Model the fold of this input.
Amino acid sequence: MITVALAKGALLNDSVARFQSAGLDFSAVLDPGNRQLMVPSRCGRARALLVRNGDVPVYVAYGQAQLGVVGYDVLREHQMPVAQLVDLGFGGCRMAVAVKDSSGYKHAADLPPHCRVASKFTHCAREFFDALDLPVELVHLTGSVELGPITGIAEAIVDLVATGRTLRDNGLVAIEELFQSSARLIGHPLALRLDRGDLQLIVEAMRIQQSLPKNSA
Amino acid sequence: MALQPAAGARDLNPQQVELNQKLNQRLAKVYRLWGYDEVSPPRVERLETLKAGGAIASQDIVRLVADEPLGLRPEMTASIARAACTRLRQRPRPLRLWAAGTIFESRIADEGSLCIEENLQSGVELFGVEPINAEMELLSLLFSAVETLELSKRHKPRLLVGHTALMDLIMLPFQNDLREKIRTALIHYDRLALENLQLPNDQFERLLHHLECRGEPLDVLERLSGQFGTQQALNNLQRLFEQMGPLAADQGIDLQLDPTFQPHFELYTGLVFQLVCQSDAAPVVIARGGRYDNLVARCGAKGLQAAGVGFSFAIDDIRELLTKEIRASEAVESTLVAYGDQTSLEHALKRQRHWHKQGQRAVVELEACRDREEAFSRLADRGCSTLDWLDH
Done:
């Protein structure tokens, strides 16, 4: 049986829609009354695991799920051995360095050496500042990262920015982009190599759908 | 005191140990039948040996705090190859060796802490034989060994085979950095990484074709011959699979040739393979191996001496896979020697020796029992079936 790891939250609706058009109907997970974490597809040949965003690549890397949908930001942060198969296009956002609007910093390189930078994505932040050759102290926060510069716990933050409204409402401004992120279809490399065609059919259906013009998708 | 073992370390219970030994013994019996001699390579080695000339990344090795750079072996091939090229140099080739023991791999867990993965391995190494003769023996021996494991149909065993020469053919048009990026993307089955390289369309399509080109070996070889013409590596593989096909079929093992398949350790310089089984949840690699001539050459061997192939079985993974098929031995008939207030522990120990001399398993109840009934009630707890009650 095919097992698919789906992330709860912002990506779920689109993920379910994409699998549905590839022939796997997991719409039961969208039912507000659903409390099940493992949901069979309507056709019975697959099941979906409903997991946290950061856990999707874990389930896929360990082979408990052959396929999964997760944001590129999570893949960059966790660096799990999974195969990236299709850029699904939805869930678009960017990983950015942001500072207080009043700080006067225009670029990440303007930040003072050894300053504190708060982030939920400390691995991505470490990679970025190492490449800049700017030594910083990373402070790991699990949410409301925008509070970092406001409270003074950090000079800057590294966080996901979608519309930029949360930054603006909290007096912050993005000064540099690390990378663009969107949802990715990922797979377990060994399961893909052992596949007799069942997984490939789904992957191809999702890829073809992604390459169609938006009004026909 | 910390009551938990270090992350990743094995802490097996008696039944698991017994099953591991049972699997080890079955495999050892096959290796001996094929004329392989047992060696016992060291668990601790110099880091330089363990890195196998860069084939094994240093972050995969558990390092020891010592005056010289030392580590725990992440596999046994490097140590056995060194032995074959030094103190066993004078032994005639082919040199057939086998070993079983624990290996240690280091990895950084997701939360950033060091995790040591400890695994029991059993495998063989064959030195001094050129392609493809050594591979013929190696895979035949692998299939014989698999037979003793008594895998069932539900495990769907499949031998996934690649060859570094096939990867080299695919990589021929590419150089330097780009070559390495493409190779990494193909090995990791990372199609998006390939797309992001923005190659000319014909090259991109050809690489995708190679990524998807896998299946029944003789079919794949025919397709590869169509693309690359006559090649020694293809001819060798043709001969190998013509021979191995029926043997694999006898054991219910599917053969799959996959030109872009390469294992985690970059030890191999020829045939590479993994035997994969389906567990209840995920695919499990129960054996891996291949040809590693460069490693043998690094140990100082020259010419034909610099040739080595081998494989190893992952015993712990096989034990967990075979939970339904393999059982620990039935409980052995045991006697509980118990004594009352009228006699003593010394007497009970003497009585125990009497049973042991007869080859009978016997356990002494170390505290005196109030009466025979109390001694009898302890039989089950002590894992015994009969009581030898001493009361005078």
Q: What stands out?
A: The CA atoms of residues 185 and 192 of chain B lie 8 Å apart. Residues 14-33 of chain B form the longest helix (20 residues).
